[in-house]
Write a structure and sequence with these properties.
Helix content is about 45%, strand content about 15%. The chain is α+β, with helices and mostly antiparallel strands and about 425 residues long. It folds into three domains: about 1-180, no CATH class; about 180-315, no CATH class; about 320-415, Immunoglobulin-like, CATH 2.60.40. The chain is globular and about 80 Å long. Pfam families: GldB_lipo (PF25594).
Length: about 425
């Protein structure tokens, strides 16, 4: 379907239901996989190919959700087959976006059916809609969904009637096709999502459909304080973005609020509003100075970024010693069979991380990966080694070690020389 230069493609939705009807008629798993391949994957548009790539959807993912959630699929079928009704509304939203940002580049919009892990995403200039989630509503059945946190999270999502916000979602994803690649840290993630949400809302002149925005505005101090505390933690994005993980607020995607509010503040303080939109859309996430300038002008955080980072550094656990010798010793016995690292406080007893130092692999001790263990109080961690005489060694203890609540260890380089 061609709409004034904008391509909106929904053939993957039609193909999915043809495949679905055949798949549910047989219990033969081999036939099911063959039908999925022949009737759906082999006919895939560039959009479905991209969606599977971005979300790492396998054939097994599809067969599992088809077999396990029949009532869910029956409840969304009618809605997903309405995909062809939204073309003009999408075009209207895109034109409104172009008025805000005249340099808007074209993008293709694809309706696909995925395996329930994305209602919308992008790849390069492709807008990818996961219709099985994006077109749900309060009548969508969730009783079959497992595990419990997935069912609870999806129930809240369905009850928000996502199909009513489908155009806004599409414009949000369209904005992503215009942005520079993000840097993989939590601050970069939330700013990029905040830009997409704020500008799409600004273009459509409607409130955000994300519950996180309203909740964040009503609980600003608490949410901001928690984000400031966790901003530099390791692997904590699930508390803030793209996950049904239960954070202490019970509201998913609060990172959208963080980024959204930063953008709203930035826009409101700008004298030239058009230039503010342009700068937000064209943020270079690899340019630390540019991001720091944006953050400073947003006046969102309670302190400058460098002070927040210093606060974080003060809380980080540290390596305080090595049981068998002093670090940088030049007279370590080659007969030592274990190296025990001592920490300033108990860690989580699970996550570990060792790497080569600047001298590379040749300076890393020979070791048995099956002989690494924590002390009962998780304040030490031991690695078995086989040392050679008269050799310089390095072991980098990385920040993958962390406390129970995710504060990463300050990296520490162990360096020593064995005796002749």
């Amino acid at each position: 379907m061609q709409i004034k230069g904008q391509n909106v493609v929904w053939t993957d939705v039609d193909n999915f239901w043809v495949a679905y009807d055949k798949i549910i008629q047989t219990k033969d798993s081999v036939k099911q996989y063959n039908l999925l391949e022949d009737l759906y994957f082999s006919k895939a548009t560039d959009g479905l190919i991209a969606m599977r790539q971005v979300r790492n959807y396998t054939a097994k993912d599809y067969i599992d959700v088809i077999n396990n959630y029949p009532n869910f699929w029956n409840s969304i079928r009618k809605n997903t087959l309405r995909a062809n009704e939204f073309g003009e509304e999408f075009n209207y939203g895109i034109e409104k976006l172009r008025q805000l940002y005249p340099a808007l580049k074209p993008a293709k919009i694809y309706f696909t059916i995925g395996a329930m892990r994305s209602n919308g995403t992008t790849l390069d200039s492709l807008v990818l809609i996961g219709a099985e989630l994006a077109m749900t509503d309060k009548n969508t059945v969730s009783d079959e969904l497992l595990p419990d946190n997935f069912r609870i999270g999806r129930r809240k999502f369905f009850d928000s009637n996502p199909i009513n916000s489908l155009v806004l979602l599409n414009i949000h994803e369209y904005v992503h096709t215009q942005q520079k690649p993000m840097v993989h840290n939590l601050l970069s993630y939330v700013i990029r999502e905040g830009v997409a949400e704020y500008i799409s809302v600004k273009a459509m002149n409607v409130p955000s459909a994300a519950p996180a925005i309203e909740f964040g505005k009503n609980n600003h101090e608490k949410v901001r304080a928690k984000f400031e505390e966790e901003m530099f933690y390791i692997n904590n994005q699930n508390n803030w973005l793209w996950s049904d993980s239960q954070n202490e607020f019970g509201v998913r995607d609060l990172g959208y609020y963080i980024g959204y509010q930063m953008c709203e503040n930035y826009y409101n303080q700008a004298e030239d509003k058009s230039l503010a939109i342009k700068k937000m859309l064209e943020l270079e996430y690899t340019n630390e100075a540019e991001i720091e300038d944006f953050v400073a002008k947003s006046n969102f955080f309670s302190k400058p970024l460098n002070e927040l980072y210093q606060d974080f550094e003060k809380k980080r656990p540290r390596v305080v010693g090595i049981t068998q010798f002093k670090n940088k010793s030049q007279k370590v016995s080659p007969n030592i069979k274990e190296i025990t690292i001592e920490f300033s406080e108990p860690l989580n007893g699970h996550n570990t991380g060792v790497d080569f130092g600047e001298l590379g692999q040749s300076a890393f001790p020979k070791n048995d990966v099956t002989k690494r263990f924590w002390s009962s109080d998780n304040k030490t961690w031991t690695i078995a080694v086989n040392l050679e005489p008269n050799k310089k060694y390095q072991i980098l203890i990385t920040n993958n070690f962390r406390t129970q609540n995710g504060i990463p260890l300050k990296p520490y380089l162990i360096e020593f020389q064995t005796k002749k």
